[in-house]
Each structure stands twice: as structure tokens, then as C-alpha cells.
């Protein structure tokens, strides 16, 4: 199942497809030692296939050659044989090539597909967004995941400081005061003579004040 060197420069005539362009094998995860590779034949004629590899001693392929009916697929299993943790078997990349032939002309290459096989030392840990970020080797990824936060959450975290609580209370009182002030009428002659003109609020000002007051209310309730 070794890959002949004289085939590395040949160009495929027809495009063929596989279920994946790369296979990842993690030495600390035995469930990745065997992976299914599906070979597709999108054409209206039967093709023959042959699976080759640059490192035949490290991988085995079930049914490395056979036929694929028209517009059908075939599943093969690629197994990692060398699962040792030696330095020469970590973070290395090999290549599997699937060659396709015309069934009527067994030596006529009509297409090929290359799949990379990577042997990695360990499987990366999945970040759990529901838990508190762990300051380890995934710090950079954690910072990226936490760049977008809810403004209510930010305010909620800051309300632990008594000074911040006092400032937010004053801000809430000002917003409430703005809401009880009269609104500027369309006709300036309709201004109330009892209240100075500078205490008449515009509609936009009241909308902003109500929005801020709503945020503060949510923060204080959750606190």
C-alpha cells in the first residue's frame, strides 16, 4: 500500500470526493485510532479505486481496493497501527492517496484524491462556556471567547463596590427625575409658566433616561 514516487506529479482528470480531506489521530484518545473514510463516485459509470499511503507501516485500510458503483459510495476504515508516544510518532503528517481507474481500462488513471493524516500528541480540551474560565494554556482562546459580554453583566459585576453602588443610585435618581419632568411641547408658547424652560425634557432624552433606568433596575434586582 506504499505510494509510488512516479505518481506524485500526475494530474487528475476527473474530480472525486471523500468524506474528509484530513484525518486527525490523537495519541491520548484511543477513539480516534480508527476513522471511517467514505469514497464517493458521483458519475454514471463504475470506477475502481486503490488506496495508497506514504507510511504503510503506521496505517491499515480495510478494503484498500475495490469498485464503486455509479452514483454510490464506499466506506473504508483507516486505522492507526503505531500508537506509541515516541518523539518520532508525535506531530507528524502523512498522506493517503485514493486513485480511481476506469473499470474497462484497469491501468488508466482517471482521478485521484489526497487525504492528510496527522498524528498529534493530545486532543485539545474543549472550552466550557458555562464554567469559570481556567487560566491555563487556553488563556488566549478564553480571552477571545469573553470579548463580547452583556452590558447588564458588566454593570452587575461592578455593583459590588460601595462607591459604584452610590454612583449608580444617584444616576438612577436623576433618570427618574428626568422622566417626571414635563415634555417639550410642539408649540413653544404652550410651555408651562410654573416650570422653567430648561426643565422641559425632549422625547429622546426621556427615552434614553428610561433605558438607563431599566438597566439599573435589572442590575439592582439581580444583585
Quick rundown:
The chain has 223 residues and is α+β, with helices and mostly antiparallel strands. 24% of the residues lie in helices and 27% in strands. Mean pLDDT is 79; it is low at 3-12.
What does this structure look like?
The chain has helices at 139-145, 151-158, 162-180, 203-222; strands at 17-18, 22-26, 34-41, 47-53, 59-61, 65-68, 72-80, 92-102, 109-120. The chain folds into two domains: 5-124, Sandwich (Immunoglobulin-like); 149-222, no CATH class. It is of the alpha+beta class and 223 residues long. The longest helix has 20 residues, at 203-222. The strands form two sheets. A five-stranded mixed sheet has the order 2-9-8-4-6, with no helix packed on it. The protein has a four-stranded antiparallel sheet with strand order 1-3-7-5, with no helix packed on it.
Cα end-to-end separation = 66 Å
Query: CATH class of the largest domain, please?
Result: Mainly Beta
Overall radius of gyration: 34 Å
Would you give the CATH topology of the largest domain?
Immunoglobulin-like
Topology:
Elements: E1 17-18, E2 22-26, E3 34-41, E4 47-53, E5 59-61, E6 65-68, E7 72-80, E8 92-102, E9 109-120, H1 139-145, H2 151-158, H3 162-180, H4 203-222
Helix pairs in contact: 2-4, 3-4
What labels would you give this structure?
about 220 residues; alpha+beta; Immunoglobulin-like; 2 domains; four-stranded antiparallel beta sheet
Amino acid at each position: 500500500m506504499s505510494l509510488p514516487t512516479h505518481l506524485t506529479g500526475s494530474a487528475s482528470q476527473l474530480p472525486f470526493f471523500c468524506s474528509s480531506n484530513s484525518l486527525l489521530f490523537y495519541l491520548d484518545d484511543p477513539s480516534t485510532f480508527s476513522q471511517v473514510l467514505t469514497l464517493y463516485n458521483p458519475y454514471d459509470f463504475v470506477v475502481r479505486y486503490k488506496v495508497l499511503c506514504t507510511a504503510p507501516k503506521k496505517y491499515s485500510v480495510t478494503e484498500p481496493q475495490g469498485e464503486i458503483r455509479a452514483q454510490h459510495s464506499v466506506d473504508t476504515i483507516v486505522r492507526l497501527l503505531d500508537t506509541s508516544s515516541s518523539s518520532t510518532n508525535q506531530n507528524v503528517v502523512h498522506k493517503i492517496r485514493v486513485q480511481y481507474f476506469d473499470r474497462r481500462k484497469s491501468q488508466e488513471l482517471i482521478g485521484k484524491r489526497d487525504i492528510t493524516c496527522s498524528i498529534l500528541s493530545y486532543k485539545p480540551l474543549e472550552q466550557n462556556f458555562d464554567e469559570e474560565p481556567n487560566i491555563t494554556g487556553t488563556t488566549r482562546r478564553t480571552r477571545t471567547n469573553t470579548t463580547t459580554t452583556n452590558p447588564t453583566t458588566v454593570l452587575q459585576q461592578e455593583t459590588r463596590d460601595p462607591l459604584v453602588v452610590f454612583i449608580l443610585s444617584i444616576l438612577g435618581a436623576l433618570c427618574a427625575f428626568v422622566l417626571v419632568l414635563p415634555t417639550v411641547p410642539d408649540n413653544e408658547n404652550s410651555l408651562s409658566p410654573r416650570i422653567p424652560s430648561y426643565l422641559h425634557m425632549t422625547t429622546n432624552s426621556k427615552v434614553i433616561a428610561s433605558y438607563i433606568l431599566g438597566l439599573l433596575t435589572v442590575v439592582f434586582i439581580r444583585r
